[in-house]
Amino acid sequence: MLYDVSIDGKNYRLELNHADGRWSCRLDGRDFEVDAILARPDVLSLRIGNLAYEVKSERVANDLHLWVGSTRFAVEVRDPRSLRSRTRTGDDHGPRKVVAPMPGKVVRLMVREGVEVEAGAGVAVVEAMKMQNEIRSPKRGTVQKLLVSEGAAVNAGDVLAIVE
Amino acid sequence: MFKKILIANRGEIAVRVLRACHEMGIAAVVVYSDVDRAALHVRKADEAYPIGAPSASESYLNIHKILDVAERSGADAIHPGYGFLSENAKFAQACADAGVKFIGPTAAAMQAMGSKTRARQAMEKAGVPFVPGTSRGVESFDEAEQVAARIGYPVMLKAAAGGGGKGMRLVHAPEQLKSALEAAHSEAERSFGDGEVYIEKAIVNPRHIEMQILADERGNTVYLGERECSLQRRHQKVLEEAPSPIVDPDMRRRMGEVAVRVAQAANYTNAGTVEFLVDQQKKFYFLEMNTRLQVEHPVTELITGLDLVHLQIRIAAGEKLPFKQDDVRLRGHAIECRIYAEDPDNNYFPSPGKITLLLAPSGPGIRRDSGMYEGWNVPIEYDPLLAKLIGYGTDREQAIARLTRALSEYFVGGIKTNISLFRRILRDTDLRAARLDTGFLDRMLKRPEDKLVDSRAAEVAAIAAGLFAALGSTEQGARNGAGSGSRVADNAGSNWKSSSRREALH
Predict the structure, then answer these.
(1) CA distance linking residue B270 with residue B20, whole number of Å
(2) How confident is the model at residue B113 (pLDDT cuts 50, 70, 90)?
(3) Among B409, B427, B445, which residue terminates a domain?
(4) Does residue B124 lie in a domain region?
């Protein structure tokens, strides 16, 4: 099995094979001796050589993070043979989504469709846990679309607006 | 003794009180709002009653609904926890009128302490040391100007009815006074419905140290030692410890005796906390009294060996304090971390949502008071406190070491928590040297974080990412691996092999 893995934006080519009850692993051309068990859902006990690691998997909406000890990594895994997963990310050109970072209630919209916004400008105010939080535009551009109205309940990852 | 206690709260403190009830053979009745049906306190209760809409004013703050549940359930006492109705004198009075015992002070004692200015007048008579300033709200800008000039800048403006930093303004120079006074006044009016503002001398880089007291209903009052609560963010406590690293036995005795005088001046009963500001010369000034059980009470429990909730219940039942001041002995050191559902990497945004994975620490010297569980949805409606992790050791160094170790075991997946903030705090050199004041956390957070970069960890993550993917999905993998986790490590590899072999046969 061949994977393109991105860890905090850095790309790795990973080859994993499972034969005779053993994993063989090649990461960017280097071979590793790997022994893995799932201790419980989302928790992998990993031995690389004789070094032991506990790796936790955390998936929220479409974001995947892995924790090695207390260090958190943003992870994307692509099967290079699969066209479907060849998505472009981190692209500053083209439309960008303004996303609710947590569930809450939209108490105020700070822009209208069609207005120009700077990167970091407030787009909406979402209230959660008695705190009002300003959700900001990820880039400079025009507010193409507002997808929520004031008073709406939103979940983490919901798109509030599109800025192009 | 009571047969049945109603717990008028939610979250970790409801669970904490419920545990004390069960330890004492008392049935625990809880209440819950519409979004808290699945909350831990409901799962653990003997009886649970719905009290309506999520908004606190419709549920946990609704005196009528809570007293109605007390009557229907036949509870003989109510424990209010902290927050919500715990410092509401009207509620304490309503309980008394309804013939159900309020586990806490009387309404009259609460009223005496509830207003900072009124408390101050009573305390001055009892010889309690105050920060120089006015004991009444200022009537006019002219008066404010005169007072500020007399006590000297910088001065602090404070809302009489205040708390949590609302209605507070620090004023460095006379020309800032007018606008600060207006802002404090209108903020106090908006937040508390009471615009009264008073002036105090601002203590530069103070420590916040508080004294726990207990008073029975037969006139006995004792102090149980202090807690150092200087680590605060936006005037909210983040980490607390007991004892304070700067308080020696003589200072403890003097602070404790003042705290006892404060309580006695108000005919105070049950558990309470007297807060002090301490300046750089270790002079201490009375700040306010909290008329409830504090969030951070566990650190006092660990170093005194006492159970404050048991004692609260016994005092409310009319029992005499089972020990005298001279019997109180402090032993060891305890530190508490408040685990909040908030994102330290994103300006401390609240982070409610579903907890997908929860790995909880344990082991020597670790206490965990938690209101969460794996699979639970943290609601958006309430305070983001999820749990308290407390480390205990023979000395401060060991308590820090144990807490650091426990934090590395603690994992909450699916939502963001401030666990990583505590790792950073506990390795800070000033924290380790106990150089603490209320500005500590703001200063620490302004410094860039020295992230421990580990390129090997990134490679481990890359390999693990592939392995998780190779197992299909994490859920799929969980089914494959289920049961293998309990085996000893030596067998783990072969166990994995056999389960994948089994799958290959299908």
Answers:
(1) 16
(2) confident
(3) B445
(4) no
Q: Which of B69, B79, B73, B70 is closest to B22 using CA atoms?
A: B79
Length of chain B: 506
Number of domains chain B contains: 5
A73: CB partners within 8 A, 6+ apart: A7, A8, A65, A66, A67, B457, B458, B461
What structural domains and CATH numbers belong to chain A?
A: 2-78 (3.30.700.30), 96-163 (2.40.50.100)
Q: What would the two tokens of residue B329 be?
A: 């002995």
Task: Clarify whether B292 is annotated catalytic.
Answer: yes
Number of Cβ atoms within 10 Å of the Cβ of B454:
13
**CA-to-CA dists, residue B404 to B137, B336, B400, B428, angstroms:** 45, 11, 6, 12
d(CA B356, CA A1): 28
Kindly name the residue from B207, B252, B292, B314 that is annotated as catalytic. Answer: B292
Q: How confident is the model at residue B483 (pLDDT cuts 50, 70, 90)?
A: very low
Chain A residues with CB inside 8 Å of B359's CB?
43, 56
- Reading the block at residue B179, the tokens are 């606008």
pTM: 0.82
More confident residue, B329 or A81: B329
User: Is A46 close to B470, i.e. CB distance below 8 A?
Assistant: no
Domain edge (last residue) among B201, B226, B244: B201
Residue B382 placed within a domain: yes
C-alpha–C-alpha distance, residues B253 and B494, integer Å: 62
Question: From start to end of B456-504, where are the E strands?
Answer: none
Output b/e per residue, B422-442; b: 16+ Cβ within 10 A: bbbbbeeeebeeeebbbebbe
Q: What is the DSSP string of B367-431?
A: EEEE---TT-EE-SSS--EEEEEEEEESSHHHHHHHHHHHHHH-EEESS--SHHHHHHHHT-HHH
CA distance B335 to A19: 50
Residues B323, B423 within the same domain: no
B356–A25: do the CB atoms touch at under 8 Å?
no
The C-alpha atoms of residue B489 and residue B293 are separated, in whole angstroms, by 45
Do residue A67 and residue B411 have CB atoms under 8 angstroms apart?
Answer: yes
Domain match, B168 and B51 both: no
**The two structure tokens encoding residue A124:** 């909406």
pLDDT value at B114 more than 90: no
Q: Give the list of residues 6+ apart from residue B387 with CB closer than 8 angstroms, or none.
A: B12, B339, B368, B369, B370, B371, B372
Rounded to 5 degrees, what are φ and ψ at A34? -125, 140
Please check the confidence at residue B381 and state whether its pLDDT lies above 80.
yes
For A45-94, what is each residue's pLDDT tens digit? 999 999 999 999 998 888 899 999 889 999 999 877 664 444 444 445 67
My answer on whether B178 and B209 are in the same domain is no
pLDDT of residue B24: 98
Q: Is the pLDDT of residue B138 over 90?
A: no
Q: Residue B474's domain spans which residues?
A: 455-505
Among A26, A129, A155, the strongest candidate for a mutation testing the B interface, having the largest count of B CBs within 10 A, is A129
* Claim to verify: residue B188 and residue B236 sit in the same structural domain: no
Shared domain for B349 and B461, answered yes or no, is: no
Question: Are B428 and B321 in a shared domain?
Answer: no
* Domain contains B110: no
Model confidence pLDDT, tens digit, residues B220-248: 999 999 999 999 998 889 999 999 999 99
Q: Indicate if B62 and B148 belong to the same structural domain.
A: no
Cβ count within 10 A of residue B92: 25
B420 contacts in A (CB within 8 Å)?
Answer: 70
